[in-house]
């Protein structure tokens, strides 16, 4: 099966989750979605990540983003793990995991999304199945994959960066702009190359031309 690429439609699937059964595309609806995977339950790095996602629920909600985890265990283990996540996360700040976690003990969905570590022969569970790579997919309301990230098992994900990318994608979809290096919401953006200078005078009256191909502008965003 070929790897998924940016611009591909995210594969649809049905799954059991900690909040009930879902059909993925139907669950996304008209929202953005972040699907993020874990090698297994009761793993330390992933426990910290899920707690962070729970604490930042309002950040995702105001961006119309639904989050959903997936781990290569069954629902019983997931439900026990959620208790650990809430307990540990509460030491950092109020933590209440409300988002769904997909049960994928047979790796069907992980295989569909090419999230298995097939290269490392030692990265296997007790049944000999490969563990899931810690992957992130950002999917837009059209069910198009807009971002993919794969992290090593040793390194926790940076959800500030994931949210930053969502901000960039959403602003770019609404306006004819792109975002520069290290950009953060509220900072100047880049006028898209397809916008002529005459158009830019109307669309972005405060734009500045730095190079023939590089123009920046302030952009008011909510």
TrEMBL record:
The record places the active site at 46
**GO CC, one annotated term:** cytosol
Any one GO BP annotation for this protein = hydrogen peroxide catabolic process
**InterPro entries xref list:** AhpC/TSA, Peroxiredoxin, Peroxiredoxin_AhpC-typ, Peroxiredoxin_C, PRX_1cys, Thioredoxin-like_sf, Thioredoxin_domain
Q: Which CDD domains match?
A: PRX_1cys (cd03016)
What positions does the domain Thioredoxin occupy? 4-171
Known Gene3D superfamilies for this protein?
A: Antioxidant, Horf6, Chain A, domain2, Glutaredoxin
What is a GO molecular function of this protein? thioredoxin peroxidase activity
Keywords assigned? Antioxidant, Oxidoreductase, Peroxidase, Redox-active center
Which PANTHER family does the record cross-reference, listed alphabetically? THIOREDOXIN PEROXIDASE, THIOREDOXIN-DEPENDENT PEROXIDE REDUCTASE, MITOCHONDRIAL
UniProt similarity note: Belongs to the peroxiredoxin family. AhpC/Prx1 subfamily. Belongs to the peroxiredoxin family. Prx6 subfamily.
Q: What does this protein do?
A: Thiol-specific peroxidase that catalyzes the reduction of hydrogen peroxide and organic hydroperoxides to water and alcohols, respectively.
The name this protein goes by in its record = Thioredoxin domain-containing protein
Organism equals: Galerina marginata (strain CBS 339.88)
